[in-house]
UniProtKB/TrEMBL annotation:
Superkingdom, natural source: Eukaryota
UniProt-recorded name of the protein: Sphingolipid long chain base-responsive protein PIL1
Coiled coil: 167-194
One record GO biological process: endocytosis
One Gene Ontology term, aspect cellular component: eisosome filament
Recorded GO MF terms: lipid binding
Amino acid sequence: MHRTYSLRQSRAPTAAQLQSPPPPPSTTKTGRFFGKGSIAHTFRRTTAGSFGPELSRKLAALVKMEKNVMRSIELVARERREVAKQLSLWGEEGDDDVSDVTDRLGVLIYEIGELEDQFIDKYDQYRITLKSVRNIEASVQPSRDRKQKITDQIAHLKYKEPNSPKIIVLEQELVRAEAESLVAEAQLSNITREKIKAAFNYQFDAMREHSEKLALIAGYGKALLELLDDAPVTPGETRPAYDGYEASKQIIIDAENALASWTLDQATVKPTLSIRRTSEGYNLEDNASQRESAVWDDHQDVEEHEEAKPVAV
């Protein structure tokens, strides 16, 4: 019997890809040393944040740690596909219903591995965006160092040679250095906020797509399980002939169509917030108080309506 391992034999763009073109392959998938296990994984974890300018070390550590996360997801994706193949091979020798259902389940599980592989590419956009902030932090460090160096020189001269003419020159340099530093710090502040929002939008959009597609696959997987006859049989009894081939095939087709047509606009899980943003900041929403306020407003409207009625003479 022909065994299938992927529900997408042809790589036609999905609706989500048409809406938002997929990013380039993750940088973690190329330029790897020392094989798939990668000794570099351990090296990054132990040396993260130990090098580079002081200002950018913490973010540099985060970026390196995220690379390890992506490598781990990459390993999971690869193992998931191998598991899917093995499940299909194992079920091949079973009864007709077991053979068919395990083959189809293998297709769905293989697709999970494919989705995880795509998730890595989108997750890398988040990491790359954070790297840009790290690079800006590193570029700001020299202006901080220069300002501090001049400040130290002035303090040293004022202590050793209070009347030195170099003090005036250094103070003028300090004014220029402070101005340069002020501009650099403002740019860092602005860009940091912009990039944080962009980076985590990449991550959360990728998580949202990945999670909802996993939920879809889980639903179709449970539909496949309904085709299995799990009623106990007595020794010597024969189970009814399996006739679910077309049904299992259609479930896979439906799964393919659902995954291909999914877009971010169609996301079904919506966050429910208990806070709301106002011009003065953020306020907690008290649903009970809101209901009481609405009832009171209705009561006031009724009273005003009653008062507005003309009095019969």
